[in-house]
Amino acid sequence: MSSHPSRRRFLTRLSAFGAALGLLSPRLADASEAPSRSAEDDPWISRLKGKNRVVFHSHLASDGIALRWAQTFLDTQKSAYGLTDADSSVVVGLNGRAIGLLFNDAIWGKYPIGETLQMPGPRNANVALVAQLVSRGVIILACNNSIRAAGQRFLPEAQRGDAALRTAFSDEARANLLPGVDVVPAMIVTLQQAQDRGCRYIYGGG
What we know:
This protein is an alpha/beta fold. It folds into 2 domains: 3-33; 44-203, DsrEFH-like (Hypothetical Protein Ychn, Chain: A, 3-Layer(aba) Sandwich), CATH 3.40.1260.10. Helix content is 48%, strand content 13%. The protein contains 9 helices and 5 strands; from the N terminus they run H-E-H-E-H-H-H-E-H-H-H-E-H-E. A 5-stranded parallel beta sheet has the order 4-3-2-1-5, with helices on both faces. Strand 1, helix 2 (65-81) and strand 2 form a beta-alpha-beta unit. The longest helix has 31 residues, at 3-33. It starts with a helix and ends with a strand.
């Protein structure tokens, strides 16, 4: 008779453990069934068709050197080796502060973008260069993680602590990217994807 209470306690604990598993199992199932993103879903990858492939990357503005090197690469391939722009796949990937190089004049004139990048002025001096590169088939990519954090870099200092203002700025920045710029989830992943597909990595920053 003395064993019955012990048996009841054991069964109670077993039942509770089973209930806990029942509560946990749907969460595990949800995690395993979550849709996965394929790298091939990123549309810029399908544009890598040239024989000569290179990715210029920077997280610093550095006077737009990553953009200018992309131009120099194509110009030299043409003048020195007789190649066309289509013979090369050139990628420019910018994150961190460097994404400010890809904002239009409207947002440059409204916020201290130039001052933050040590390129003072109400206009983005790289607008024409970006348009030229896009017309020549250069793939220009901006990091979404950096856009989300852009308010911490480009808002006036007194406003950077306001979460609502930071969110509003990131939305505004995304809406004011230069034409032809594509947004990727995270530049650190994009650089790996580019190199996996034959792009030589060149860092264009100070």
